[in-house]
Design goal:
This protein is of the alpha/beta class. It is built from 14 helices and seven strands. It has a five-stranded mixed beta sheet with strand order 3-4-5-6-7, sandwiched between helices. Strands 1-2 form a two-stranded antiparallel ribbon. α11 links the parallel β5 and β6. It is elongated. The model has no long low-confidence stretch (mean pLDDT 92).
């Protein structure tokens, strides 16, 4: 393989790895809603209710399970919510009641939920919570980015002719590699005292390939940390016979950290991006 130019390689990085399902996982949103739909419909009786405190106490006294859906009304998944008040500190539990119903009504009033419901600002709690769930699901995009990169790399591994659990393996630990194939990887991760798990491991007749994948959409400290870790691994495995380390990464989040990435590029032979995958690098490198 000819010597590569970092600037040329880096210029081929892509801005996004977003797929159709990346922005919002609606299946997850609908599952979450279906689990609490009955309780939400019971609380619909509070919408526009003039005597909302009394009606809340009546409903929750008769159907105490409705309390479990209150946290999601303020966009919280935790079932225990702490409130710091000038008079005292509250620690409301919405699975096992630890205050009186009147105090839970106080929670509804002081957090603004009674006002939201009483003044017709919404028409259906199911619709309202669906919107809350969509908004909260955006927090999952970071993990979906990593999953999408793994899925993409795996699709190219399969395209190259490797078979899952036969010639390639997912999330395999260093100790398992040593156990299966009798290779000594103790030079890695503090002379073997710390465990290391690879996203993928490919086994051929003559070589074992440990593969890491990631994609960074946004800048931050994580790319720098990753670059440092993988630069160390590249040094640790350099003299291990029968083992090679491959790293697939991409994303605009690398732009502020390009110097750190270039340092790894200069010492790690097998550092690739999505464009390399599309150009058939797996078939070229893995023998």
């Amino acid at each position: 393989m000819k010597k590569r130019d970092f600037n040329e390689w880096f210029s081929s990085f892509t801005d996004t790895i977003a797929t159709w399902k990346y922005y919002t996982n609606f299946d997850k949103v609908y599952r979450n809603i279906n689990q609490i739909k009955d309780e939400l419909n019971l609380l619909n009786g509070l919408i526009g209710e003039e005597n909302i405190r009394e009606e809340f106490i009546r409903i929750t006294s008769k159907y105490p399970n409705v309390l479990r859906v209150i946290p999601i009304l303020i966009a919280k998944r935790e079932k225990e919510i702490i409130i710091n008040d000038a008079e005292q500190k509250y620690k409301f539990n919405f699975l096992k009641t630890n205050y009186t119903i009147e105090e839970y009504a106080m929670f509804m009033e002081k957090t603004g939920l009674f006002d939201l419901l009483q003044n017709h600002m919404i028409h259906s709690l199911v619709d309202y919570v669906t919107g809350v769930e969509v908004g909260m699901d955006t927090n999952g995009r970071k993990s979906r980015t990593g999953d999408a990169m793994e899925d993409l790399v795996e699709s190219f591994i399969c395209k190259a002719g490797f078979v899952k659990n036969k010639t390639y393996f997912k999330e395999m630990e260093r100790s398992k590699i040593c156990e299966l194939w009798g290779i000594d990887l103790s030079a890695m991760t503090n002379t073997g005292k710390t465990e290391k798990k690879f996203d993928f491991v490919i086994k051929t007749d003559s070589m074992i390939y440990g593969i890491e994948t990631n994609f960074y959409n946004a800048q931050g400290s994580k790319p720098n940390e990753t670059a440092g870790n993988y630069k160390l691994i590249s040094t640790e495995v350099k003299n291990i016979k029968g083992f090679k380390f491959l790293w697939f990464t991409d994303g605009k989040g690398w732009k502020p950290s390009r110097n750190n990435l270039e340092e790894v590029f200069n010492v790690l032979e097998h550092l690739y991006n999505i464009k390399d995958l599309e150009n058939g690098v797996l078939e070229e490198v893995i023998k």
